[in-house]
Amino acid sequence: MNMKNENHNHLSDELILRAIIDEADLNPAEQFHLSTCSICRKRKTVMEAPLIQLGQLAAQHAPDPKGYPSILHNRPSRRVYGWNFGWRPALASAVSILLIVALAWWYDAAWFRGTERVDTARLEKIDDATLMAEVDALIDEALPETYRYITADDEPRLTDEFIRFVAPLAESDSLTFNFRNRGLTLWQTSV
Amino acid sequence: MPINTDRSGPGEKPLDFFIQQAAGGVEGAFDPIVRTFYADIFKMIYYRTQSRPDAEDIAQDVFLQAFQNIATLKSPERIRGWLFQIAVNKVRDYYRKKRWLKLFVKLPEQVDPDDPGSEQFQAADAEKRLQQADFWKIFGRLVKKLSSMEKEVFLLKFLDHLNIREISQVMNRSESTVKTCLYRGINKFRKEPSSQRLFDEA
Asked: Within its chain, how far is the Cα of B105 from the centroid?
């Protein structure tokens, strides 16, 4: 492959990456180009270098093992995740719980009261007489005090006689009575 | 790095021989296997935990499990991938336990019991330790950008030097899936500015 041809068919970055992962993934033409084109080979080397360097750096910064483990003679392993109790988190949790309880107690929170049980047995034992007295009182004074003032129920001068004087019954009102009778007569006459 | 089961144990016998012997329950046959792969497995775990004592503990667990189950190994040439598979699972278990226990228990500080505790030693070693800490800090930030699958595949390929077939065996995924994850991982790695910083500081 001559130089001119090389320049026109260089592998893309994507193909170079694929070659880094596995050269067998390239098609035969691309593989042939990579093996013959110095520019593409160099590009592959440049792109691959940091990845190789990363592996080398990691190996440099990792310690070498000290000896080999004795598989058959189990040494007690130093468990970092053992059950050693953490006092700080435990104390913090306890203080938090105490604070919440104290706040709920202090403000007498609704949810706190809501959790009280209803004593149904006590409710059933309410004296019937007391209950009936309450019912009677409600019948006598059905209206609230404000409305009782408007209706003047408590005014002793407003007797039944006075009310009948102000608003007489239909039977005892002569005008109304006569008019009704007259109406009836007229109707009966026309029929 | 291709699977090399020709790595000879003591007495220039091929490793396959010891694997078969260990599978048959021959005493001492497992030792050459440990000697051949221990360093790789230890480093692989260290890359993921960045703690020497944890790496030692987990590596021991890996080889203990391998020792107990070597008879189930289908073919001797798969031993490297098989050991890495056990190690990946052990590291996962370790993080799972650690995450769970963190909720309830205060975990102790990472202490290397084998390191001399003297101030003189620490002063002489301080620069190296600082460099190491910096490296793993940037490295941790870098791999955080990858998804868990991309990260694992990336580490197995470029830090543990496993080939695609071995990675697919370790991850229990098809080779094409591994390649796709690797492709994505490399792309993210190249675009990440902290990757350049990693090499600059190194």
From this structure: 26
Do residues B177 and B110 both lie within one domain? no
State the residue range of the domain holding B26. 1-114
| Per-residue model confidence as pLDDT tens digits over A65-74 | 888 777 655 4
- Number of domains chain B is built from: 2
Q: What is the 3-state secondary structure (H, E, C) of A178-189?
A: HHHHHHHHHHHH
| Cβ contacts of B43 on chain A, cutoff 8 Å | 59, 62, 65
B130 and B67 within one domain: no
Two tokens, residue A181: 């009778």
Please tell me whether residues B19 and B109 are part of one structural domain: yes
Considering the domain architecture, whether residues B74 and B87 belong to the same structural domain is answered as yes
In tens, the pLDDT along B42-57 reads 999 999 998 888 999 9
CA distance B199 to chain A (A): 8
Cβ contacts of A50 on chain B, cutoff 8 Å: 189-190, 195, 199
For residue A82, what pLDDT is reported?
A: 45
- Does residue B99 share a domain with residue B35? yes
For A121, phi and psi rounded to 5 degrees? -60, -40
Residue finishing a domain among B114, B130, B151 = B114
Last residue of a domain, one of B114, B146, B174: B114
CATH number at residue B50: 1.10.1740.10
Instruction: Say whether both B109 and B133 belong to one domain.
Output: no
Yes or no, beta carbons of A61 and B132 under 8 Å apart: yes
Q: What is the pTM of this model?
A: 0.61
CA distances from B40 to A72, A156, B2, B8, B128 (A): 20, 110, 14, 16, 22
Which CATH number does the domain housing residue B174 bear? 1.10.10.10
Q: What is the pLDDT of residues B154-190, one digit of tens each?
A: 999 999 999 999 999 999 999 999 999 999 999 998 8
A153 — pLDDT class (breaks 50, 70, 90) = low
Q: CB B63 to CB A80 under 8 A?
A: no
Q: Is B179 within 8 Å of chain A by CB?
A: yes
CB contact under 8 A, A78 and B53: yes
